[in-house]
Amino acid sequence: MAIQNPPVSQTRSFSTVFLIEMWERFGFYGMQVLMVTYMIKKLGFVDTRSNLVWGAAAALIYVTPAIGGWVGDKLIGTRRTMRMGAIVLMLGYALLWIPTESASFLYFSLGVIIVGNGMFKPNAGNLVRKIYEGDDTKIDSAFTIYYMAVNIGSTISMLLTPWIRDYVGQRYGDDWGWHTAFGACAVGLALGLINYALMSRTLAHIGSPADDKRVDLKKLAGVLGAGVVLVFVSAFILQNEAVARVCVYAAGVVILGIFIHLIRSSHRDERAGLSAALVLTVQTIFFFIFYQQMSTSLNLFAQKNVNLDFSLFGWHIFTWIPEQFQSLNAIWIVALSPVLVLIYNSLGRVGKDISVAAKFAWGFGAVAAGFFIYGVGARWAVDGQVSSWIMVWGYGLYSLGELLVSGLGLAMIARYVPARMGGFMMGAYYVASGISQYLGSVVANYAHIPEGLTDPVKSLDIYTSLFNKLGLVGVGCTVIAVAVLPLMNRLSASHSDVATNHDPLPASRSEEGYDTPAP
């Protein structure tokens, strides 16, 4: 809740949230980049099991923010919930620091991380929105900078934690290498919390109404108790594949049913916007299936079938660790975001804005091309290994697709959904995204490498077969997106007419600033 004449500048308040978010993303992506290979190499999981465990964790990570945002707004306050979430996340990473190879302990640690993430993510983004509430001239720039912070933190950690694992492992043993790398995530978040404590007064005037009241101990106890229960529920889901599958598919049926019910029961003037939102949400789900390949099939592909040396014109530049290739996504996002913002603004000035539906079509085309690049690169593979530059360009196209599809997902909800349903539909969008994360892991398992197969030429065929099929699916998504463009334009025009001739919808901003570049 912003008040007039705040005691500190917007920039200083923003910097406080910016820095804690950067450190939080440092911890999260530093953990994510190692998790699938950790389960395979240290816990002895087969690739299919590790993919599905991480897919279930990713699904829960996307679902819990819908709960955490409500807790911050209604129960204990946005600032308090964000800080509590950061502390819980730090504890989750610290648990991974403990040198044990117990699968049950891993599930419990991931459960703690899931709960902490759900408390932190939505409330950090909400604070940025509240800092610039009513100041439309600055909020887009603020979210763009905020988005860059996410990718700066994640880039550094995705490059650093694999290096820490190898460096410490070579000197003190493999066990300490893995767990020290996870510990670095906890240390990073501890630094972020210390910095936040020093700067927290800059946010004293920002937050939800609950932040301005003394802590209700009963509500706080209820939140903590529910959090502990959710940790164990999450751990149970992660270690039971059948339960995870039932939860995911049931959630999909519920979300679809809710959309259909809302469209049928809403006012006639609202149906066009809701129908457009449904079509674009389904397309977004398909995108996240592609997205989940980064930490699963593409990660394992880099382990077995990518030449780790970067050379240019015969000169050796550097050598990467396989997991570090995942940082290419964040690097490309940082590079491409300002370019797209410039293009959008330039087209807007001449009245030639690209519709959200058209951007989705372009995005799927980019993703399809990215996956085909891996297949093409395999034609010039040497002893079953493709050039590291193939990964660079594949990730580049893939990241462009992310900006055009995923980056506009919540902006689409804000644009097409009636304001009275906005909060609920934002939560439904998160749940739908979580479902597709799990489905992405199911898809990644089509590139299962049989136990004992060590020939890189054969594993190359298995991985590129999956990537080529994903490229074909991407082409299919592009064709469908182009085919429905006339329908989407009609729905959008109908929705726009209603908004113009009736009470306009209030301005709404993305709740996922960490994952949404400013349009």
Automatic annotation (TrEMBL):
**What UniProt keywords apply to this chain's record, in alphabetical order?**
Membrane, Peptide transport, Protein transport, Transmembrane, Transmembrane helix, Transport
Origin superkingdom: Bacteria
Provide the topology term for how it sits in the membrane.
Answer: Multi-pass membrane protein
Q: Which Pfam families does this UniProt record tie to the protein?
A: PTR2 (PF00854)
Q: What segment(s) does the record annotate as region Disordered?
A: 499-519
| InterPro entries, per the entry | Dipep/tripep_permease, MFS_trans_sf, POT_fam
Localization terms from the record:
Membrane
Q: Where are the transmembrane segments?
A: 22-40, 52-71, 83-99, 105-124, 145-164, 176-199, 220-237, 243-263, 272-291, 330-348, 360-381, 393-417, 429-449, 469-488
Q: Which family does it belong to?
A: Belongs to the major facilitator superfamily. Proton-dependent oligopeptide transporter (POT/PTR) (TC 2.A.17) family.
Q: What is this protein called?
A: Oligopeptide:H+ symporter
Question: What is the organism field in this record?
Answer: Dyella lutea
